[in-house]
Amino acid sequence: MEKMIFCGKPMEDLVEDIRKFHGHIAPGLVIGGFMVDWALELLGDIPKIGAIVETCRCLPDAIQVFTPCTYGNGRMKILDWDKFAFSLYDKKDLKGFRVWLDLEKARAFPNIYNWYMRLVPKKDLPLEILLKTIMEAQRLILSSCRVHVIAFYDEKKRGLTRVCPSCGEAYLAEHGNSCLSCQGKGYYT
């Protein structure tokens, strides 16, 4: 049996990368791996790519595990649209490909469809069975199209930094005369 290679690595290595990064093997991240593999194949050899991810769940991790795009380096933007989709694009000309989990195609693989649509409790669909179905489906549950990115591609530049007179911590000067926490807009008390 031929070894399955995607994102330039044997499948076993990829699954281990997922486990190390995400903490466990997540079905959405495995599907995301197939999505990234296809998008990279469609893009070809691009020196600097960007990513726009349309969900906060699993796909941002797939982008960070399988591409050089991370939230931290500013080459990945995350939109909280709860669509299992992303676009990878050339940072120079903003042209690329959008790849998504196509629910009509996923209907041909009931385990995947029922898992994604939360129609079956987790206890009734063991991870091993779901992963086996994902490995069978691979790209058959995905769709893609060419895109020209027109928004969300700007890399955020760091602004002027100040020291907060109240707490002594660094903060963005654009936030005012003190940091947001000291202005009462923090996320903790």
How much strand content do the residues show? 15-25%
Tell me what the CATH architecture of the largest domain is.
2-Layer Sandwich
Report how far the terminal alpha carbons are from each other. 58 Å
Q: Which CATH first-tier class of the largest domain would you pick? A: Alpha Beta
Question: Can you characterise this structure?
Answer:
- By secondary structure, the chain is α+β, with helices and mostly antiparallel strands.
- The chain folds into two domains: 5-148, 2-Layer Sandwich (60s Ribosomal Protein L30, Chain: A); 158-189, Wheat Germ Agglutinin (Isolectin 2), domain 1.
- It is built from seven helices and nine strands, in the order E-E-H-H-E-H-E-E-E-H-H-H-E-E-E-H.
- The strands form three sheets. It has a five-stranded mixed sheet. Strands 1-2 form a two-stranded antiparallel sheet. Strands 8-9 form a two-stranded antiparallel ribbon.
- Helix 2 (27-43) crosses helix 3.
- It is globular, with a radius of gyration of 20 Å.
